[in-house]
Design brief:
single chain; alpha/beta; TIM Barrel; eight-stranded parallel beta barrel; binds orotidine-5'-monophosphate; OMPdecase
Length: 237
């Protein structure tokens, strides 16, 4: 997928998503997540692809290695550019996910990029320690998961902007750092704990940003998308 801002299409129905997209000109990078996919199935992917957009299919798979591998075989046939798993599923699960994707990608087509969620951007450090029982700092946990994902052959991770620079040092420039939790300056954090602006994301080494409500719930979504894109692109790495 190219590096334009990825709009999170967190809508219940395909018509809502497609109507929203009609107001923003051009070929866009979009994310279809659980809300849209689980209520509508694979046909929603087809409809949005037919409208000409590049898709990150965000289903955050996390199950035993065989189940995830088989599921990825199927997802590889949907023509999307990126898919993901939870790094907490472990090395074998991630390796099997990659094998499934490779086996399922139609001949001549490009395999979707496979990335792993480290710690969700809605997770804070206290919550991680108390609820997940993980000691140390949040950044240490994210870095451990990022290294594990890289060693398992994955293309990158989902992390917050706050860990992107450390992951760049540990895993390299080309390892994808896909960062949600993006807000324009002064925007409400809502359920996110680790937020940042598009400009901060760019400066920190994010390779992609995922932006939902800052665009989809804006009074003028096309203007909000333009503002995000300008900030994201104006600073040269
Ligand atoms: O994998 C993701 O896309 C994801 C991972 C993560 O750690 N945090 C996170 O917010 N996301 C997704 O990114 C989007 C963020 O939405 P907003 O907070 O509205 O911008 C949602 O669709 C989340 O499902």
């Amino acid at each position: 997928m190219n590096d334009s801002p990825i709009i999170a299409l967190d809508f219940p129905a395909p018509d809502d998503a497609l109507e929203f997209l009609r107001d923003i000109p051009g070929r866009l990078s979009v994310k279809i997540g659980m809300e849209l996919y689980l209520q509508n199935g694979p046909s929603v992917v087809e409809r949005i692809r037919e409208a000409g957009h590049d898709i990150f299919l965000d289903l955050k798979l996390h199950d035993i290695p065989n189940t995830v591998g088989q599921a990825m075989k199927g997802l590889a046939q949907l023509g999307v550019g990126m898919v993901n798993v939870h790094a907490a599923g472990g090395r074998e699960m991630m390796e099997r996910a990659l094998e499934g994707l490779e086996a399922g990608t139609p001949a001549g087509a490009e395999r979707p990029a496979l990335i792993a969620v480290t710690q969700l951007t809605s997770t804070g450090e206290d919550q991680m320690r108390l609820e997940q029982g993980i000691a140390g700092t949040l950044e240490q946990s994210v870095l451990r998961y990022a290294r594990l994902a890289k060693d398992s052959g994955l293309d990158g991770v989902v992390c917050s902007v706050h860990e992107a620079a450390a992951i760049r040092s540990a895993c390299g420039e080309s390892f994808l750092k896909v960062t949600p939790g993006i807000r324009l300056a002064g925007g409400e954090s809502q359920d996110q704990k680790r937020i940042a602006t598009p400009l901060e994301a760019r400066k920190s080494g994010s390779t992609h940003i995922v932006v939902g409500r800052a665009i989809t719930k804006a009074a003028d979504p096309a203007e909000a998308y333009g503002a995000v894109k300008r900030q994201w692109e104006e600073w040269n790495r």
